[in-house]
Design goal:
Elements (H helix, E strand, L loop, with lengths): L11 E3 L4 H6 L3 H4 L2 H8 L11 E4 L12 E3 L5 E3 L8 E6 L4 H17 L5 E6 L4 H11 L5 E3 L4 H5 L11 E5 L5 E6 L4 H12 L2
Parallel strand pairs: 5-6, 6-7
Antiparallel strand pairs: 1-2, 2-9, 3-4, 5-8, 8-9
Helix pairs in contact: 3-4
Amino acid sequence: MASPAHPSRRSVLAFAVAVPAALAGLSACAANDPLAQQARAGDNKNYVAGDGSVTEYAKDQRKPPVAFTGTLYDGTSVASSSFAGRVTVLNFWFASCAPCRVEAPSLKALSDEFAPKGVVFYGVNLRDEKGTAEAFEQNFGLTYPSFNDQDGHVLLALSGMVPPGAVPTTLVLDKQGRVSARILGELDKSTLKALIESAAAE
């Protein structure tokens, strides 16, 4: 698969994740979660942390639309071609990933906010059995579905954009199904919101 297009200088943002800002929005369940506490402690246990970089890709530098078919935990088959016409957010995660737990409340809030505007969210779970994934979703009140990607099929299709060990990673797809933005590592709610709004305005 071809390497990702290089974004223009003005479209690339690299910064350290603002931990205090991220923690301020945590729900009570996340605040008391031992793995979330581990992420805040910076121990980097049980996951490979992203570098905190945020990249926006200019329209003329985006790769072709993503192409894959994956299976949700309820057995439903979903083709990426169904994303066309909507902004789509893909969040790569697994339950024992500490920063995934820290960012879950922000993902819930944003999915609730943008669902009425036609923005679609999907998780891509790389490790967990159905019961473990569903327990995580119930704990954090996530209502959007996740792909069961233990076989790495979705990850492989996006290998030019998602480093195999960098979890969490979040992609924003434009209305043509092309990657318009990427967050490597724990996301900042306000940053992801701005990236979604930017893609939706195109």
